[in-house]
Amino acid sequence: MKIAVCDDEVEFLNSACSMILKWAKKYDIHVKLYRFDNGDDLINIHKKECMDIIFLDIVMPLFNGIDTAKELRSENHNVPIVFLTSSREFAVESYEVKALNYLLKPVDESRMFNVLENFRKEYQKKDEYFTAKIQTGFIRIKIKDIEYLEAQNKTVMVHLANSTMIEIRELFSKCENIFSIDNGFFKCHRSYIVNMEYVEQFTKSQIITYNKENIPISRNNYVAFKEVYFEHMFND
Fold first, then answer.
1. 8 Å CB contact between 6 and 39
2. CB count, 10 Å around CB of 80?
3. pTM of the model
């Protein structure tokens, strides 16, 4: 588990890191801890390493925690962020950047452990997420939110159920291994993989999703798709 702590005050930085390592030892969890005293370094390293969770001080000189979080979000990084702050006045700002939580300084160990435990429960479900490379770094995408995937040259367009789209720099063959029948997906065409949960209707040549997207079915895949579709419906 990759955990980053960013705080310009050495005392608080050391304290937070100490608590995290104590929690990791208590629950026998392997943690790779990253320490930062400024937001710029955090952003640059996160692009390469893809943190699992970030503890971020709000009040820092030059580039504060809120600005750092906004920069992360602007580049499609949906990493969980926990703010460290001496005041509750930043609650609204933390909500705007979709913070997981915020801890008041000096951070209480029991509260830190509680935040980490709640995150650990979600982290253990990481197979429900797909970590993919994008132009600016990495992004974690919740698998159940994916409507279909579309191969385009050397990239893959991930179409989400909320009608947004993310371009990822992954091989389509890698996606095939992850988005398989066992996980509720079906490769209906050489360039398309569809989530069976979002199939509203289909013909011999195309699938129509609940978002009214039209996805082609190749002639060779129609019979197999029909069987998988009705089996999926029956199991549900």
1. yes
2. 19
3. 0.60
